[in-house]
């Protein structure tokens, strides 16, 4: 039976996933988003798009890529997603597997956190499946998630919150640092284009070096810090200013927000159960 990925939401993350999939020739895709302007790029490519979902095939794989804050309204306004027998993959930050199961009346849920480099088939997704997802559906989920990059499965759902900070948010943290590097170049007199080209090649080269040599990250750092030379002055300043600690704190705050988003829904669901 043919499997179609039905993608709900093509904002920044959903469109990155759709573009990544299309780049590899995977067009078994249907896209639903109430914002008509978000759909135009994809309908122009011949992809089936709709502003609302009225029906689904039992074998469809659903991917939920709307903001977590609208998931409650989505679940009450979209009856066709209820009791879906196939696979439901969420990319929403925070929302727990049990909440999705409860709100959609479905069992086979994969909670995942991808990232925006999926757009160029360099995505990284961390995911966790519900106990009802057997080997066949698990393989299907992995195939979907690897159609726009790499995927790593974790068995403990609690790890998805820190993974949301590290993997989902990671491109923002790296881009923030890259912006500071580029700004230094510009302030020092390089053209914007030259500063950007250097920054891009730094990120690419450093990541290739890490991946190819397998050296520990800090070894790579130490190998650049020639004793008595220039780089150690910069790294010592990072140490004095506690930059490493600041980064750890920043990611902890992101992770805590993921937990908080999930808890808000879990609590409102349990209040609803008590009121029933
Ligand atoms: N932006 C990122 O890098 C990442 C985002 N995520 C998750 O992806 C989801 C989307 O995030 P973004 O794309 O950044 O948000 P966004 O605000 O860019 O896009 C959200 C999209 O969802 C659509 N939408 C709203 N209500 C909908 C409904 N009822 N049905 C279908 N679509 C609906 C909106 O029209 C919009 O196109 C969130 O749950 C977020 O936690 C996960 C990992 C990374
Ligand atoms: O900031 C957010 O909430 C989403 C989830 C991970 C990356 N972006």
UniProtKB/TrEMBL annotation:
One Pfam match: P5CR_dimer
Record keywords: Amino-acid biosynthesis, Cytoplasm, NADP, Oxidoreductase, Plasmid, Proline biosynthesis
Binding site for NADP(+): 65-68
Amino-acid biosynthesis among keywords: yes
Subcellular locations according to the entry: Cytoplasm
Gene Ontology molecular function terms on file: pyrroline-5-carboxylate reductase activity
Enzyme Commission number, as recorded: 1.5.1.2
Protein family membership: Belongs to the pyrroline-5-carboxylate reductase family.
The protein's name: Pyrroline-5-carboxylate reductase
Annotated source species: Methylobacterium nodulans (strain LMG 21967 / CNCM I-2342 / ORS 2060)
